[in-house]
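Schema walk-through. Below, the input block comes first and the output block second. Nothing else is stored per chain. Lengths vary across the set, and this one has 409 residues.
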Amino acid sequence: MAVFENLNKTYSPGVAPSVVEYYERSLLENMKPEMVHNRDAQKRTLPEHNGKTVKFRRFTPFAAITEPLAEGVTPAGQTLTETAFTAMVKPYGGHVELTDEINFYLLDNMHQETAKLLADQAALSLDTISRNALNAGMNVQYANSKTSRGALASTDKLTFAEIKTAVRNLKRKNVKPFADGFYHAIVHPDVVHDLTADTMWVDVAKYQDKVKTERYELGTIYKVKFFESTNAMVFKAQTYIYGTKTSLTATAFDAATKCMTVSDSISEDDARAMTGLLVNVQITKSSANSVTPMCIERVDATNKKVYFRWVPASTTDWTTANALKVVPYGGGASGADVYSTLIYGENAFGTIELGGTGRNVQIIINAPGSSGALDPLAQRGTIAWKVKGFCTVILQDDFIVRLASGATA
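--- output ---
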C-alpha cells in the first residue's frame, strides 16, 4: 500500500479529497449499471439526521365526475386520500484487508483492482436485496394455467400468451407504462433462451431507432420491454430432504391424525433433522399432478410415521394409488427450477438513492498503521465499501406481476 502510506482514514485531514472522490465515483459508476432491479424504482435520498425510516406515499385516484355543475353552485371539495409506506433502511458493506507488502512487491496497483471487485460485490448485494423484495409480492401469475409454483414443470415456458395476459391485468388496474410507452420486465437468461424463439419477439437489432437502446435491453414483445439479468430470481428445489434422501414414498395416510406412513427406513438422527422441515407432498395421477407445501411436525422413526403440522381441507387424492410422496421443497414439479419474470409499470416500487446529496455510498481506505496499537508495525490496511442505508419496497402490489414459469434445461 505504498501509494497511501502517508494517509490516515479516508475522511481524516491526512487523505487527499480527490483520492476518496475518485474511488467513490468509481464505485458508483461500477455499481449502478449492474443493479437491474433498481433501475425503474422511485428513489428517495437519505439525508443525515432524519432517522432510520423512509416514507413513500401512494395517492388514491379520484373517481370520474358524471354530474354536471349547477348554475351558480360550487360543488363540495374533494378530499385527498393517501397511503403511506414506511420502510426501515439498513447499512450494508464489506471490506478487504491488504498488507503493506502487497503493493511493495507486486507490480499492479492492488487498490484499483480491489475497488473493482468490491464494486461488483456491492452491486450484487444491493441488487439481490431489491430482487428479494420485489419477488415477495402477492400478484403472481403461473405459466400454462398452473395454480402453484410446485406444479410448474420445465415445459411450462414463458410465452407470448402469458405476457399478453400479464399486460391485460396491468391495464385493468390502470397501471401506466413508462415514458418509452412500454411496461418493463426483468428476465433470466434461461427464460430468454425460450422467449426469443417466439415468433412475436422483436429483437433490439430490429429496432428502427437503435440509439435509444438501454443497457441490458434485449427486445420487446406485446408492449413489454425486457431487460436481462443473471441475478433474476430462480426458485430452486432443495436437493435432499435430509442427508442424501431425495424422496419418501407413502404406504398409507391418515387425514385425522395428519400422519403419513412411509416405506423408507428412518434413523433417530434423520427424525430430528426432519422435525420442523418444510417439504412438498407430491401427488402423481393421470388427470393432473399437484404439489402441496407442508411442514413436518414430528417423526416417529421406529414406526416410519411422519406427522404434519397441517393438511389441506381436502385430502381425497392423498392415496398410494396416486404415487403419494414427500419430496424436497422449493422448486417446481419433480424438482424443476422455477423462474420469476417481473413485469411492471411506473411507480410499482421504491428504493434509496445511492448517489446525490446524501453521499450514501462510501469507499473507505485505511492505510497500514492507522489502527494504532492494533497494528503496531503498520502491516495491515483495509479498503471497504459501505452503503449508509438501503431498502426496497413494493409500493403498488397490483403494479407488478411476478410471472412464474419453467425453462428449457
